[in-house]
Amino acid sequence: MCKLNQAKPSQLSVIPSTHYQTKPGLLTLPPVIDELQVKLIPEATNNPMPPIKGEQLVLAKPEIGNIYSQLFKMLSQTSMDNASGPIKPTSSSSVKTGKVAPDAMQPDDQHNMMRVSIQKTYGKFGGEQAVTQPSAKPEYSLLSKLTQFLPLLRPLTLNALALPSTLKGELSAIASLHSQFKPESISVSSLSHISSIGLLSQLLLGVKARHANGNTDKLSGPALKYWQKLQAQFGGSRSLLSLLDKVGATEALGKLCSNLSLYSQASSDTSTQLNWYFTLPYSLNQHQEALEGHFSKDNADDDNPEANSWSLQLKFNLTQGPLLIQAQVTDNRINMTFNGSNHTLLKRIDALLPPLMNKLADIGFTPDKLETKLTKVPASLLPGEHFLVKIKA
Q1: Both ends of the chain: CA-CA distance in Å?
Q2: Which tens digits make up the pLDDT trace of 212-268?
Q3: Which of 137, 178, 227, 379 lies at 20 to 30 Å from 278 by C-alpha?
């Protein structure tokens, strides 16, 4: 580290260039513009930072649930009446009294602003009862209109995902999230949730590309033809898609698809082990969450080709806190641990372990040990250390 002396010479002195002529060539020294006193100081570092390895990186946990909540909140607060005019999100309620109307307030009228604020907080002012009236009906929101064309736009419940056929369909859709659809063979009304998200994302990307910088020729011929067929199968008007793009649905779906893709990017298949990370959104008590999964399997060893060893982790965000289920299987013998930070939740699970052991035996497993464990649950199953980021929706 070097330190410059702040006291500079009062007068700037410039030494002209000096030329030295020798037989091999000409050496030119440029002029000296200024002179400064430089003092070298050793840099003191009591705790030198070690080199960061890939697995030591601290990353934010994917916030799929928050993205869903913000997206649905935005769509539910946008009225379809704005389809042909300025887009203004509708408020959940408006307050009116016999003397002061919020719509009549002037920006500089501090008295009226304070009056309305107290009305919203306490429900009355000056002995007058505030009347709360809904400003928009849910059936006229952009979300309700969109679900007429895509019934499974919202994530399924956990009970619905418990069905093997439904679970298989959603996992397959995750794997082909960014793939092209076959417009002639799809039935939009019967699409799975993930397929509905993928279809809507592609439609909105087409809208964004067609109207970029006012140029409607951004899409190539084949891409435009594909988008038009997809839009025809979707059934919604182009004005509906344009409205979705204007309120920010394109960007929200882009973030959602990026978060969903993090799990496939973390998956790997080497000569020694298979690692598959996955996630599935779900609804829980009107809230949007996402389960995480990690399947790991050792590839067959040349010395023991018939060995069957694999493990599965499933992480849920439940009402009473997170729950991490870990299962290890070796030659059909299974051990399971239910990890959680809520004692009441684990106590309820303890009561269900005996019938679970019978169910596992019915499908061909031999249960060795099933237990619950009170411990801290990691923020994410993705590789690396992750931390939670709370975002106010």
Answers
A1: 46
A2: 655 555 678 888 899 999 999 898 888 999 999 999 999 999 999 999 999 999 998
A3: 227
Dump pLDDT digits (tens) for 279-338.
999 999 888 999 999 999 987 665 666 668 899 999 999 999 999 999 999 989 999 999
Q: How far is the C-alpha of 218 from the C-alpha of 227, rounded, in Å?
A: 12
Decide the pairing of beta strands 124-125 and 385-387: unpaired
Tell me if 277 sits within 8 A of 382, measured CB to CB.
yes
Count of H-run helices and E-run strands, the chain: 10, 17
User: Is residue 350 a contact partner of residue 338, using CB atoms and an 8 Å limit?
Assistant: no
Q: Amino acid letter at 21?
A: Q
DSSP-derived 3-state class of residue 238: helix
Phi and psi angles of residue 294, each rounded to the nearest 5 degrees, phi first:
-140, 115
The single-letter DSSP state of residue 126 is T
d(CA 190, CA 174): 16
- The secondary structure of residue 129, as a DSSP letter, is E
Ranges of H-type helices in the chain: 64-76, 110-122, 142-149, 158-161, 164-175, 193-210, 221-234, 238-246, 249-266, 343-362
